[in-house]
Write a structure and sequence with these properties.
By secondary structure, the protein is of the alpha/beta class. It is built from 10 helices and 8 strands. An 8-stranded mixed β-sheet has the order 7-5-6-4-1-2-3-8, sandwiched between helices.
């Protein structure tokens, strides 16, 4: 191995990906052998305590190839925590913090990422300009990206995930973050630095079941919002103020109407009271939910739990 070779670190979090991890490894190896032979690389797999044959396959690969490194978590800590922990273990001159085992984000883009990096860009985003998925899910994702980008207090590029190349300067800056639930795309954008984008088609999964269900998307979206903006709380305050003002106006109008048209008659506003009760109860519960998200984030952050708990590391040298 030539000492002057630049090193690229690629992180692949995985959970029950027995049908994909070997192909992912072989594809990345092929790219670096044929197209990027003047670079060294390491491929870090972060296994979230898979209960299939994923870890067994990874152990065999790591035994054959020392460039493959494995972090075995004691349980499933989630893809974002696992991915960020894997990035912290990287030792390259540049890092790709998320190369999915199912290769829905195509590894064929890595040479282009590196080309832009060599031109001086510290961040090279992969932009999912097209998606091989249902129109419903495509619409939900587009709405999610729009909402996060619109309300965040930083500029998070639209249709960008974690399939990104970042320079060592960037991930050294990311090491300073102490976040119980790292929203990596937002954290990278928050670091600044010179960036560019590479559009691509996000492919349909060939094998296995995706772990990114609707709940996971909602969870990620809420985490992105509460991590980088206080806009939801401001919206709640604004809606509360407007609702209170309208309620006072309605009460004044009802009082005047009762004096003029309903003298001596029992107030006929029982249905109105019922509607108002349910309406304001719903508004209060909504606001409490928003407030609860922020309090929950504070609660988990101040408890200072470890990002992940590792069971073992494979092929990591002591000096790394």
């Amino acid at each position: 191995m030539a000492k002057d070779k630049k090193k690229i670190s690629v992180v692949t979090p995985c959970y029950n990906e027995e049908g994909n991890v070997r192909e992912c490894y072989e594809k990345l190896k092929e790219i670096f052998t044929k197209q990027l032979s003047n670079y060294d690389y390491e491929h870090i797999f972060c296994d979230n305590s898979s209960d299939d044959e994923t870890l067994k396959i990874l152990r065999k690969i790591a035994n054959e190839d020392p460039r493959v490194k494995i972090i075995v978590n004691s349980r499933n800590f989630g893809v974002f925590n696992s991915m960020f922990n894997g990035m912290l273990a990287a030792s390259g001159d540049a890092v790709i913090p998320f190369m999915p085992a199912d290769m829905q984000d195509p590894p064929e883009l890595i040479p282009e990422f590196i080309k832009h990096w060599e031109q001086g860009y510290e961040i090279v985003y992969g932009v999912r300009s097209q998606r091989e998925e249902s129109s419903i899910m495509h619409g939900i994702r587009r709405l999610y990206y729009y909402v996060v980008n619109r309300f965040a207090n930083i500029n998070i590029p639209l249709n960008v995930g974690e399939f990104t190349l970042i320079d060592k300067k960037v991930y050294e800056a990311l090491r300073q973050y102490d976040d119980y639930y790292p929203y990596l795309r937002g954290m990278i954008a928050n670091c600044g630095f010179r960036s560019t984008a590479v559009p691509y088609t996000w492919k349909a999964r060939k094998r296995g079941k995706s772990k990114a269900n609707l709940y996971a998307l909602v969870d990620t979206g809420l985490n992105g919002l509460i991590s980088f903006t206080n806009i939801p709380m401001r919206i709640c305050m604004f809606i509360g103020f407007i609702t209170a003002a309208l309620s006072i106006c309605y009460a004044v109008i009802t009082f005047i109407a009762t004096l003029i048209w309903f003298k001596g008659v029992a107030p006929p506003g029982v249905p109105t009271l019922i509607v108002a009760l349910f309406f304001f109860s719903g508004v209060l519960l909504f606001f409490l939910g928003i407030l609860g998200e922020y309090i929950s984030a504070i609660h988990f952050q101040v408890r200072k739990r470890p990002l992940v708990v590792e069971r073992e590391r494979i092929n990591f040298q002591k000096h790394e």
